[in-house]
């Protein structure tokens, strides 16, 4: 039997009628990293001010669509490139339009080298209780090759400053399978990061995104990536090393010390509602998935007329919603809760996916426990192939 608390969580969130999460996109960076395809542009102060004014209008337009907020994620781009004053103003806009739960998880993405004590104290004073630093690698020459703006010592300075300011929940983003990267270099990065004892580590394999300098160099044969076998070995090594040091592997790319799972990201993996704000942001409200206009100027212009800056919408229903729910939940190491699926769709998971599931279980890519359906250790390495078939 479900407890009353669990039942009400399922009712309000799993059916996607309300949003208790907000994502806010800050599409500015000092410069663009060579591998990155996120919607982000070179920072200009005047443009950022106009953008934040437009964002204020967008926040007002969505005020009535939010429940009590349990998670807020300010991502980018580089939110920490904003001045302390601009950050403080953004929090005024958030708090004067939304009701934020006292125990809400509030995360800000920070690029090493762009934080200082003043910005960190603005975040602290406004309830930010989780920081996410993009580090990527622990070798200066690699950071340079990636087009990062910071060195390893600059990252360490930002990280320790955040600790001194009292942040007790810090994530570090890393990327493996980088051009020319050896297993030794990746091993070194992992161990140096572990020695800092962050509460959370995200370890992504490099994705070659079209229209990035890396992609062009790769197409021209000038960039040499580790072979697929090495990439798989690096992933295996990541899992063994991090779990060996007390990190729980709770999502394909994410590892956390106990009680430090990223609550906001779990909203995505549970396919629950989230209001997305900012240029290029995606949201999912009342069963509708929407994407905002990507360009800064058209985004600002739309909001000057007090119109929502949405460019695409998709009403997610039927098999598409089921497939997306399955695919996202399978990213979690525990897999998809069969009870939650049945509660959300009023049918057993086999009704829509029986044949696929049987095939993957027979191939030992998926396994069923009493309560969940999840990837096997082997299946985890072939997750993308499974997702492609599901789409
Ligand atoms: C949207 S970025 C924001 C973080 C922050 N701007 C920074 O880079 O320090 C979040 C993370 O996505 C990851 N990422 C971006 N592009 C990637 C790619 N092409 N392949 C793999 N990971 C990528 C990086 O680890 C990055 O830290
Ligand atoms: S990885 Fe981060 S800092 Fe680099 S361009 Fe992308 S969003 Fe900006």
Structure explained in plain terms:
The strands form four sheets. The chain has a nine-stranded mixed β-sheet, sandwiched between helices. Strands 12-13-14 form a three-stranded antiparallel β-sheet, with no helix packed on it. A three-stranded antiparallel β-sheet has the order 15-17-16. The chain starts with a helix and ends with a helix. The protein has two domains: 11-269, Alpha-Beta Barrel (TIM Barrel), CATH 3.20.20.70; 322-391, Arc Repressor Mutant, subunit A. The protein is an alpha/beta fold and 391 residues long. It has helices at residues 4-14, 45-62, 84-97, 117-125, 140-146, 152-164, 183-195, 213-219, 228-244, 263-269, 296-304, 318-330, 338-345, 349-362, 377-380, 383-390, and strands at residues 19-26, 28-29, 41-42, 66-76, 100-110, 130-136, 170-176, 200-205, 248-251, 254-256, 275-277, 282-285, 288-292, 310-315, 336-337, 366-368, 372-375. 44% of the residues lie in helices and 23% in strands. Helix 2 runs parallel beside helix 3 and helix 7 (183-195) runs parallel beside helix 9. It binds S-adenosylmethionine and iron/sulfur cluster. S-adenosylmethionine is lined by residues 35-36, 38, 76-78, 109, 111, 134, 136, 173, 175, 204, 206-207, 209. S-adenosylmethionine (SAM) is lined by residues 35-36, 38, 76-78, 109, 111, 134, 136, 173, 175, 204, 206-207, 209.
């Amino acid at each position: 039997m479900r407890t009353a608390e669990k039942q009400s969580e399922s009712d309000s969130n799993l059916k996607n009628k309300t949003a208790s999460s907000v994502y806010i996109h800050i599409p500015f960076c000092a410069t663009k990293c060579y591998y990155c395809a996120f919607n982000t542009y070179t920072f200009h102060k005047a443009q950022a001010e106009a953008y934040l004014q437009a964002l204020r209008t967008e926040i007002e337009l969505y005020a009535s669509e939010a429940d009590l907020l349990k998670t807020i994620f300010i991502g980018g781009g580089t939110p920490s490139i904003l001045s302390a004053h601009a950050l403080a103003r953004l929090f005024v806009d958030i708090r004067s339009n939304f009701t934020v739960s006292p125990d809400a998880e509030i995360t800000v993405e920070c690029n090493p080298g762009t934080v200082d004590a003043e910005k960190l104290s603005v975040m602290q004073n406004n309830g930010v209780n989780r920081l996410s630093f993009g580090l990527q690698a622990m070798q200066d020459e690699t950071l340079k090759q990636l087009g990062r703006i910071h060195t390893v010592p600059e990252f360490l300075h930002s990280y320790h400053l955040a600790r001194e300011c009292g942040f007790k929940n810090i994530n570090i983003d890393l990327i493996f399978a980088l051009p020319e990267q050896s297993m030794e270099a990746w091993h070194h990065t992992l161990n140096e990061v572990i020695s800092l004892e962050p509460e959370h580590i995200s370890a992504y394999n490099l994705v070659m995104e079209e229209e990035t300098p890396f992609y062009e160099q790769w197409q021209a044969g000038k960039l040499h990536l580790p072979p697929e076998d090495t990439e798989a070995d690096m992933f295996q090594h990541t899992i063994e090393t991090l779990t060996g040091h007390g990190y729980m592997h709770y999502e394909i790319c994410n590892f956390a010390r106990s009680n430090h799972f990223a609550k906001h990201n779990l909203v995505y993996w549970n396919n629950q509602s989230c209001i997305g704000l900012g240029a290029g942001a995606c949201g999912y409200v009342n069963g509708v998935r929407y994407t905002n206009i990507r360009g800064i100027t058209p985004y600002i212009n739309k909001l000057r007329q007090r119109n929502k800056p949405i460019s695409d919408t998709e009403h997610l229903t039927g098999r598409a919603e089921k497939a997306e729910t399955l695919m996202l939940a399978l990213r979690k190491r525990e897999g998809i809760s069969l009870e939650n699926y049945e509660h959300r769709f009023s049918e057993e998971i086999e009704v829509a996916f029986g044949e696929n599931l049987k095939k993957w279980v027979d191939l030992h890519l998926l396994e069923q426990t009493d309560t969940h359906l999840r990837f096997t250790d082997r299946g985890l390495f072939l997750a993308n192939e499974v997702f492609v078939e599901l789409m």
